[in-house]
Amino acid sequence: MAEEIISESHSSREEEHVAPNVAPFARKQGGWTAIAYILGNESFEKLASVSLISNMTTYLRTKYNMGGVFLVNVVSIWSGFTNITPLAGAYLADARLGRFLTLLFGSLAAFLGMGLVTLTAGIDKLRPPRCQGNIHCEEPQSWQLAYLYIGLGFMAIGSGGIRACNIAFGADQFDTNTEKGRAQLKSFFNWWYFSFTIALVIALGVVVYIQTNISWFIGFLIPTCCLAVSIVIFLIGRRTYIRLKPQGCVFIDMAKVINAACRKRHVLIVPTASSLYDHATKESENELSVLRHTDRFKCLDKAAIIVDRSSELNAEGVAKDNWRLCSVDQVERLKCVVGILPVWVAGITCFITMEQMSTFGVLQVIQSNTKVGNFNIPPGWMGIASMISLAIWIFIYECVYIPSASKISKKEARLSLQIRIKIGIVMAILCLSVAAFVETRRRDLARKEGTFISPLSVGYFLPQFILSGLTEAFAAVSVMEFLNNQVHETMRSVAGAIFFLSLSIASYLNTLIVNLVKLLSGLHGKKEWLGGHDLNDNKLERFYLVIAGLGVLNFMYFHFFASHFIQTFEESKRRKTVLEERVDYVDLPEKKP
C-alpha cells in the first residue's frame, strides 16, 4: 500500500503538475470535490490534535503535578516547537516530497506521538503519584518526563508536515487565474477555519468531558483514533487532488539572493532589462511560473545585476556561480517574503494573547467554581467558547455580511485586511484587560473565603475566552489570508510555515516574558507576580496588563507602519487584475506551422 501511494505520488507530480497560469481546462480535478476530502481530513486531524492540546494544561497540572511557571514553560516551549517544525515541512514539501507526501508522513508521525502520549494516561508508572492535597505534590522523575517529551516531540514533528501544507494543499485545488477561482480561494480560508471549528465544538465537548471526568486514557484514545480516520479520508481522496511538482528549496534561494546582494552592495549599475539576469531556472518547467521584475525593495535587485558577462555567464548565458548571480525570479521570491514580514510581525502579539488563554486562562478556571448546578464544567471546555465565537463570526461574515453588502454596493464587498487586523488587535487588548479584571475578582474572593478554590463562577471567564476567539477570527485568519495571497502559488508551503513560525515565536516570547516578569517582580525581596501551584499567591492580573500594554504598542506599530504594506499589496493586486482583464480582450495570432 505504501509503495503504491509513493509511486502514485511520483507519477502524479510528473503528470498533474500544472503551472500557475495555465488555462482552467488544463487543470485536472481539484476544486471543491478535492476540498471536501481535505476539509474532512483537516476536521478529524484538528479534532485529534486540539483534543490533546486544549486540555494539555489540565492534564499536566493534575496528572504530572506541574504548576506555575514550570507548567507554562513546558506548554509554551512545546507549542513553540510544534509551530517551528513547519519550516522543515515547507522545505520537504517544496524541494523534495511535494505537499501530498509531506502531509501523509506528517500525519503518521503525529499518530505515533499521540499513541505515546495516550500510553502515559493508561500506564500509572509513566506518571508521578497523585498530589496529597493541593500543595504537597511529588514531582515527576526525569525518565517520566523524557518519555512524555518524546511523545510530544513526535506530535510536534508531525505538525511540521501537516501545518506547512494543509492550507497550501487546499489552495492548490483552485485556479487563481480566473475570477471564480480567486473568489473561491478567498472563501476557502474562512470555510477552512469554519469547518473544523464546528467539528471541534461538537466533538471536543465530549472528548474533554471524558478526559476530565471519566478517563484520561479513553479521552486520549479517542483523538488518536480520530487521527487514524483523518489519514484514511486523506488517502481515499488521493485521486482527486491537484499535486504541484516541487520547485526547489526557496530557503536556499533566499540565502543565495542575500549573499549575492551583499557582495554587490557597492555596485552602482541601475537595474534595467539588459543588466538583469532574467534567465528562467531549470527547475521551472513552465515559463509562466517565473516571477517578473518589480520595483520594490530595489536593494535586492543587485543580486541579479550582471556586472561582467564574461566572468559571470557561460557560453549558454547561464550563471556560472548562482551564489554570486541570481535570477530575477529568485530575487522576486525573496521580495515576496520581505513584503510579508511587517504584517507578520504585527500578528505575533495577538498570538501571545491567545497563548495566555490556553495556559494561565485554564489555570484560572481550575481554581474557580466550575459547578453549574450538579454539573462540573471541565476547564478545557473554556476553549470551546473561543471556537464558537470564531465560528459565529465567520458564518455571519460569509453568509450575512458579504451577501448583503455586495447586494447594496453591486460588487463584492469584504472588509479590508487592514480593518480586520486592527479589530483583531483591539480584541486582543480587550481580552487581556477583561482577564485582568476577572482575575482580581477571583483572587479577592478566594482570599476572603480562605480557600484554594475561589467561589467565583466559571461563567465570569467566558468573556475573555470569547474575545480570544474573536482575536483569532479577525487577526489570525486575516494574516493567514495575506500571507497566502502575497506569495507565488509555488511558495504557499512557505507562507504556511511562516504563519506557524509566528505562532512559535509567540510561544517562545511568552516563555521569555513570563520568566522575565517573574524575575524582575521578585527583585529586592518583593513578592513575585508569578510562580508556584497557587494562583491566589500571585499577581497574575499585573502580568495580563503588561501583555495588554504590548498590544497597545502593536496597534500603533500596525496603524502607522505595517498596514501600509497591505495597502501597497492590495493596490498592486488591483493593477494586476486590471491588466489581466485587458489581456483577455487581445486576440493572440494563431501559430504558423
How does this model look, in words?
There is one protein chain. The chain is 68% helix and 1% strand. By secondary structure, the chain is mostly helical. It folds into three domains: 27-248, MFS general substrate transporter like domains (Growth Hormone, Chain: A, Up-down Bundle), CATH 1.20.1250.20; 250-278 and 293-326, no CATH class; 336-582, MFS general substrate transporter like domains (Growth Hormone, Chain: A). A two-stranded antiparallel sheet has the order 1-2. The protein starts with a helix and ends in a 9-residue tail after the last helix. 47% of the residues are buried. Mean pLDDT is 79; it is low at 1-27, 281-288 and 576-593.
Short characterization:
This protein is an all-alpha fold and 593 residues long. The protein is built from 17 helices and two strands. It is found in: Membrane.
